[in-house]
């Protein structure tokens, strides 16, 4: 048989859980609360013990009212009578009360209902028609008799009740109980949230808070009306009322991602939307020239005034279709956005100069795009140049999985000259074709949601943010939450600085009206009303602050094993940087062979050269560890890695690097420590104390000695003993540390052979930080 909970058993025995807990403990069982469970044997023992206890209580006519509220068996009417006046409400005090009036219950059905059974059990046992619990409970709330028992003031109330009953007999109508509130019926289901208090529950149950508190007391839970209740307690309470309890799933208004995802999932009213394109490539390969060319020759709707300001994104109209370009400054912005969870790019255009070929940033760009899972269109640029060799570029790119269709792959390649406007239209055609294949759609009819492209503080206008609408339509005046900021869309401009009233999916807009400056990559969601937007924004700002405080670190080799154990990891993303290509390959191949507990190494980027900021942003976005072989991070990359908790491991020996990763995956990584001497003490005097051993009195000559230092005893330049400090005192008081120039007293753990003129070197083991 399964184990039983104390509260269930108590219910069966019709006694307060608290009392049963006491009985159980008296019986030598170690029971903590009403939620503790007992074995079937223990339950049987408790049933027995409880019966004994009941009988005893019944015999004791003047027992303590509070303690004697357990039930008596229905077959012992006389016992019932004896115990009844002292019974408390809760289990079946009114049943006893009713018996007190003989069989009047039959004649006075209503009276009986109000005074009779308080639980189904007693109803059954008394062989009376069983009423539903809800009704029983209705009648229970806050009536006179209840209170009479509660306060042990039975006599007075008995009189009053008798009077009532007499009145009823005379009038032959339902009893009128002046102090009894007409309780509304209980709800079918108690919908609650954890942490509600008796007052909250009282409102839902249409009962008085006092009744709830009372009931909880009977269930062994002592609370006041304002105390928060946990889930178990609320469920027990509901069970006691005989109704179902259901936890209300509270909508977290601050969970923008959820709103955002819900909006994205909404498949209604879907219409095609323009693609969002990012152009990436190596320095000087022609990104800016390409974007400028596209922009100037295809300005949106050929508006008069043309381009007046850059807002980090713009739309061009080509063949009567719109394309949105993100004008992100370099890869960092791109992966920073991704690190913040915003994948706003649909298509990446990779610009590679035909005269220069694949360069480090080309590879970085490929890896960024792959990590973001966006299709790549290759624009082989500068084909006008004499040294241009587009085929060589294509060949190089096949190594990175970018194979053109006519070579059997599925990557679109377009040979262009950005400077001389050659094949730019073809590139745009290809973008539209790719977009068509992707069937990019959105619902313009819902509330807007999207991401921040960039944001800044404008002296005159306050926070200004460029947003990309990804879903729905945004209007001027919309209440909005953007990242951890909130407000109302006060003004909305398009990329040409023109005021617009609404913005549909894939439209970049510049808005004002926020309370603070959000960050690039933050998501935004339009809310129904400003009040909720404000509440959500404030909550988000608060949470962000808390998060910042308890900043969760990225995966490092030190926490890798724990992360793996928690099942949070299937692959360990690694970025390899080394001094020569040979080392890059050797390291990559060996690392890929490691497989521990089904977790594999995934090399997301490998290259020759120093560890750059771009490596760190990629590591941050992909939660990767960076392994450097014979290379160092640039100062900026180092500080970025430090502030973002990115693990950079530097090695000079390949097998050590492999060993370290393997050890980390097996949870065997030992932190590396180095010794650091922190100070010296010269022993001047020795005291022997029978209890503590040898106490050395001396002077700190250099540095300091701290209570947690390790110590080394040096005599005539020779290390005599190495161990732990036992105690450290300044005069008579324990000291945490004593600095140079001050006297101190100390003992060494498990060592007493200290002599005058010995030198005690204090040192600490410090974990070696990442170089
Ligand atoms: N001949 C020729 N030159 C080009 C072409 N495209 C760009 N250039 C030149 O290449 C140089 C670099 O072009 P940018 O557009 O500034 O290159 P970028 O990739 O934006 O460079 P960064 O902004 O520094 O990353 C400029 O002098 C351009 O005029 C082209 O198709 N043909």
What does this structure look like?
With 771 residues, the protein is of the alpha+beta class. It has 6 domains: 4-53; 189-247, no CATH class; 274-439, Rossmann fold; 449-550, Translation factors (Elongation Factor Tu (Ef-tu), domain 3, Beta Barrel), CATH 2.40.30; 566-668, Rossmann fold, CATH 3.40.50.10050; 672-768, Elongation Factor Tu (Ef-tu), domain 3. Helix content is 35%, strand content 26%. It has 26 helices and 33 strands. The strands form 8 sheets. The protein has a 6-stranded mixed sheet with strand order 7-8-6-9-10-11, sandwiched between helices. The chain has a 6-stranded antiparallel barrel with strand order 13-14-19-17-16-20. β22 (595-596) and β23 (599-608) form a beta hairpin. α1 (6-13) crosses α2, α3 (40-59) packs across α4 and α10 packs antiparallel against α11. The chain is extended and about 95 Å long. The model is unreliable at 58-178 and 300-309 (pLDDT under 50). Guanosine-5'-triphosphate (GTP) binds at residues 281, 283-289, 381-382, 384-385, 417-419.
The gist of it:
This is Translation initiation factor IF-2. The protein has 771 residues and is α+β, with helices and mostly antiparallel strands.
Secondary structural class: alpha+beta
> Numbering strands along the chain, what is their spatial order in the largest sheet?
7-8-6-9-10-11
- The CATH first-level class of the largest domain comes to Alpha Beta
CATH level 4 superfamily of the largest domain: P-loop containing nucleotide triphosphate hydrolases
Mean pLDDT: 77
Helical amount: 25-40%
